[in-house]
């Protein structure tokens, strides 16, 4: 059986966090852009708000994932 080191597990968690952050940021950006185009007369705040929500959710998920191992 192959050994898994703690550093490898931590690295995989960080990789998952970065991937999750990029996906959630992109999703928030896309949703904010659509809302801005359709409902808010092409203003910037829905795009910024959607991106911020995406990063916030990803940060919360990463924090929970990294603190679960303690």
TrEMBL record:
Membrane topology: Single-pass membrane protein
Key words of the record: Membrane, Mitochondrion, Mitochondrion inner membrane, Transmembrane, Transmembrane helix
Main location group: mitochondrion
InterPro entries xrefs: Mic10 (IPR007512)
Localization (cell): Mitochondrion inner membrane
Lineage: superkingdom: Eukaryota
TM annotation in the entry: 22-40
Membrane in keyword set: yes
CC annotations in GO: MICOS complex
Function: Component of the MICOS complex, a large protein complex of the mitochondrial inner membrane that plays crucial roles in the maintenance of crista junctions, inner membrane architecture, and formation of contact sites to the outer membrane.
Entry-linked PANTHER family: MICOS COMPLEX SUBUNIT MIC10
Entry's family note: Belongs to the MICOS complex subunit Mic10 family.
Assembly, per entry: Component of the mitochondrial contact site and cristae organizing system (MICOS) complex.
Protein name (record): MICOS complex subunit MIC10
Organism: Anopheles darlingi
Lineage of the species this protein comes from: Eukaryota, Metazoa, Ecdysozoa, Arthropoda, Hexapoda
């Amino acid at each position: 059986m192959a050994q898994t080191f703690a550093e490898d597990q931590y690295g995989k968690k960080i990789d998952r966090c970065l991937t999750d952050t990029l996906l959630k940021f992109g999703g928030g950006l896309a949703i904010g852009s659509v809302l801005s185009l359709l409902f808010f007369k092409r203003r910037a705040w829905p795009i910024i708000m959607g991106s911020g929500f995406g990063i916030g959710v990803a940060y919360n998920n990463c924090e929970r994932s990294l603190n679960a191992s303690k």
